[in-house]
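Notebook entry, structure prediction.
Reason for the run: the old model in the group folder had no record of what sequence produced it. Starting over properly, with the input documented here first.
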Amino acid sequence: MSEKQVFESTDRNARLSDITYRSGAAARLAGLPVETLRVWERRYGLSDPQRSSHGQRLYSAEQVQRLRLLKQLVDLGHPIGQLAGHSIDRLRELAGIGADGRTAARGPISVVAVGIGLAHRLAVGGNAALQLDILASHARLEQVAPLPDAAEAAVLLVELSELDESALPRIAAARDAVRARAVTVLYRFCASATIRALRAQGWVVARVPAELGELLSLCRTALDGQRLPLPAQRSEPAPPRFDEEALARLSVNSGKLACECPRHLTELLLMVGSFERYSAQCASRDSADAELHHALGNAAAQARVVLEDAMEQLARAEGLALPRTGGAP
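New structure, fully documented this time:
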């Protein structure tokens, strides 16, 4: 490359680096609803966009690329809370993308495939071309058996057209049988609660891809997900400060105030507390669903604690006497 070409290339890259996008355009280019972008920024501090002279958020091309990678990884089952702190280079690595924007070349992945039609499509598509080394294939989960010579699979790849939560223990048993490090589950029809329950196990869950070549990306994502840091353990929330009887009395006693906030807060506390107890019952009723509903109950308890703090602050401002749990004054 001549000195003139080097200068023109450098000048062009400099001009591209100066391009910025408003939040709506940045979200659209990343494949995100603008509301999701705002929530992610508020909760996880994903980016620090510039501001125009009118106060509008402006995103660089690199920030848009990072948002696109985050969207891609979240769609494949990675929790946004675990991805938010990663650099763009780490996000590319998790997505199997090199710095030049091309899919990074790696060796083949050893796979045990489960599904009536999956093995046939893999054979027709050519395992070598897909960079998948099929160690064994089975029509049903119940047929999965340990591999010979104590071999181990990198990924258990399961395709179930109609996926429900009854499959979770069977998938776990098949994973243990072949000693797979990661699990990828494909479906055509599945309830959102089931998807959340399976992803809570650290598995990649996705619709059956239209292109067979996408299987490699899904399997790599499942393997890379095993290296993501575990979410920080939260301490158990405090027990309720007000029971239903105490809240009911508070709602009645606050009726003489012009302000409706005590009554509204009471209704919120009653609803959140009820959902917290409901989640605890679900967690104890179904072992396959226990982890998901424990997380939901814990989230409701955290919300209850925040609302109880707000109630106490409001009571002090309005001069209300707050009854305690059990009816104590």
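Summary: Residues 255 and 263 are 8 Å apart (CA to CA).
The old model has been moved to the deprecated folder.
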